[in-house]
Design goal:
Blueprint (H helix, E strand, L loop, with lengths): L3 H11 L5 H12 L5 E7 L12 E8 L2 H5 L4 H7 L3 E7 L2 E9 H7 L8 H6 L3 E6 L2 H11 L2 H9 L9 H13 L10 H7 L2 H15 L6 H29 L3 H13 L7 H5 L1 H15 L4
Parallel strand pairs: 2-4
Antiparallel strand pairs: 1-2, 1-5, 3-4
Helix pairs in contact: 1-11, 5-7, 8-9, 8-11, 9-10, 12-15
Length: 295
């Protein structure tokens, strides 16, 4: 259970209002999974945007379990073995992608038992809980997300030279998480996250550090943890990309759009790559790594 201070801040942030079309989209998304949908979270760069047309909104759909969500489809074991599954979604003239996790997996991946940085790195940042099936589902989401910031700061603290400055710890933490995934963003992106709203990160950071207390690992232990997270994170990124070629219609075009948008490159997808997205993803990856478009 997270410290009451950080939990209170997370609950208030999750409850902040969103643009009505985002709420409508979340409700429609939950409606695709009757009996399984537990909560829908809105996160990412679009959270700060007022003009949503032409953007790709980001959602997390939290479900009770994968069998309830997919029945006997192969998508259930795929989601369990290589979480999350990612799908495209359109509603009300807006486009989105959504990732699917079970309540149990979401709780684990927000905290120190996570297999990769993917979930807790994202939900240490602002997000909104835009739909929940009931109060119990809402409380469970709050409990999970309240562990994300403490997890990031606890692991970043021993790696930060200016550890007395909580914003410096945040910046170091995000820099380390970016090194632990295949990312298309520019190198200064991790610092710009904090600089966009330093007061938020100071307030949440101070509350999260109370939760951490004296429990941060030693520098040597932290280095071993980050080394393991980099290894598992890069491997998971490749596996997710491969899986997305089956679950995400037009996924290869989305990948190119995202890389071009964040890395300032001009990746162009050829017709054959759309016909064979798995082969395209595998052949694109070494070139993009060599050119520094993803890291």
């Amino acid at each position: 259970m997270a410290h009451p201070g950080i939990r209170s801040l997370v609950a208030a942030e999750l409850a902040e209002p969103v643009e009505p079309r985002v709420s409508s989209m979340a409700e429609a998304l939950a409606g695709l999974y009757p009996g399984a949908a537990r909560a829908v979270l809105f996160y990412g760069s679009c959270l700060r945007e007022r003009q949503l047309e032409g953007l790709m909104l980001d959602f997390y759909l939290i479900v009770s379990d994968y069998r309830a969500a997919y029945g006997r489809s192969w998508l259930a074991p795929a989601n369990r073995l290589i979480p999350p599954n990612v799908f495209p979604f359109e509603h009300g003239g807006l486009a989105a992608k959504y990732a699917v996790l079970s309540e149990a997996d979401f709780a684990r991946e927000c905290g120190e038992r996570a297999k990769t940085v993917s979930v807790w790195a994202r939900f240490a940042q602002p997000s909104r809980l835009v739909w929940a099936t009931d109060a119990a589902a809402r409380e469970r989401v709050v409990d999970s997300i309240a562990t994300a910031a403490p997890t990031l700061l606890k692991l970043a603290l021993p790696m930060t030279a200016e550890a007395e400055d909580v914003l410096a710890v945040w910046r170091q933490g995000f820099a380390l998480t970016y090194q632990s995934e295949l990312r298309a963003e520019r190198r200064d992106r991790s610092s710009s996250i904090v600089d966009a709203d330093p007061e938020r990160y100071r307030q949440v950071g101070e509350a999260a550090m109370e939760s951490v207390g004296g429990g941060a690992p030693s520098r040597a232990a932290a280095e071993r943890i980050w080394k393991s997270l980099r290894r598992s994170g890069k491997r998971a990124s490749v596996l997710r990309l491969t899986k997305a070629s089956f679950t995400f219609a037009g996924g290869i075009d989305y990948l190119a759009w995202k890389i071009n948008r964040h890395a300032g490159t001009r990746v162009e997808i050829k017709p054959w790559q759309r016909r064979w997205p798995l082969v395209a993803a595998i052949t694109l990856l070494p070139r993009l790594l060599k050119r520094g478009a993803i890291r």
